[in-house]
Design goal:
The chain has 168 residues and is mainly alpha-helical. Helices cover 66% and strands 0% of the residues. The chain folds into 2 domains: 59 residues, no CATH class; 86 residues, UraD-like (Orthogonal Bundle).
């Protein structure tokens, strides 16, 4: 869809389109308020500004709209509306050796137990081994530091998905 087409969507259609980019309802609502948008740069800048101004609860809500890295079953079931994008973002995981997938599963479990949300990483362009290394490197982080890293990763994901939305 073009930016002009996005600008012309009715409120519910716009909300649905934005929801595919970020699962925070507060972000979607705030983003709806900036339309019509003059250009792509403004759209991306506003998306980040709005994201950064949200609460931790809003960030955590967005995280719930992602499958765990490597969890192909949940990609297909729970996240049907964004599964094609998520599968592409996590494409390298499908090629990973079993021991890497098992380590990712164990790391995801440890991460979720420690922080209370799934491991969020902008997976685009990363191998399963790279994502595992990032997960293992971030696991020792204190929660106040990790939430900021996770929210920055979500911002990257959102921006990529906004670009994909405009390319569709």
């Amino acid at each position: 869809m073009t930016l002009a087409e996005l600008n012309r969507l009715p409120p519910t259609g716009l909300a649905d389109a934005l929801q595919t980019c970020c699962g925070s309802s507060a972000w979607v609502e705030a983003m709806r308020g900036i339309f019509p948008v003059a250009d792509r740069v403004t759209l991306l800048q506003k998306a980040t500004i709005i994201w950064n101004d949200l609460s931790e609860a809003d960030w955590r809500e967005a995280f719930t709209h992602h499958p765990k890295i490597g969890d192909i079953a949940s990609l297909k079931e729970k996240f049907a509306s964004t599964s094609a994008w998520a599968a592409g973002e996590q494409g390298a995981v499908k090629e990973a050796p079993l021991e890497v997938l098992e380590a990712l599963a164990a790391g995801n479990e440890a991460y979720e137990q420690k922080f209370g949300y799934i491991f969020i990483v902008c997976a685009t362009g990363k191998s399963a081994e790279e994502m595992l290394a990032l997960l293992q490197a971030r696991l020792p982080n204190p929660p106040p530091q990790e939430i900021l890293i996770a929210m920055a990763e979500q911002d990257k994901i959102t921006r990529i998905r906004l670009e994909k939305l405009l390319a569709a």
